[in-house]
Specification:
single chain; 107 residues; alpha/beta; five-stranded mixed sheet; 4 helices; 38% helix; globular
Length: 107
Amino acid sequence: MATVKVDKNNFQTDVLNAKEPVVVDFWAEWCGPCKMIGPSLEEISAELGGKVKIAKLNIDENPELAAQFGVRSIPTLMIFKGGEVADMKVGAAPKTALSHWISGSVA
């Protein structure tokens, strides 16, 4: 399962109303660390299959959602469960650390 793109039009449906836990990657095109973790998130999405959805939200295109969730620096990753933020991680990390964090949070 590849990562999905979310924005203000589908955030409610794809993140807040999702049955499975959703990891939202708040990122921007100009952010180097964001681009570094992108491939790792794609791989983690494929490895975890249907257990978790990984979504990417461009903060330049959706500043109101970034503000709503208090995103002050990127990359910021948030895990949503049942429409609520269950956990948050700020900054880039190696794939092993990201995978461990996501697996531990959605278990």
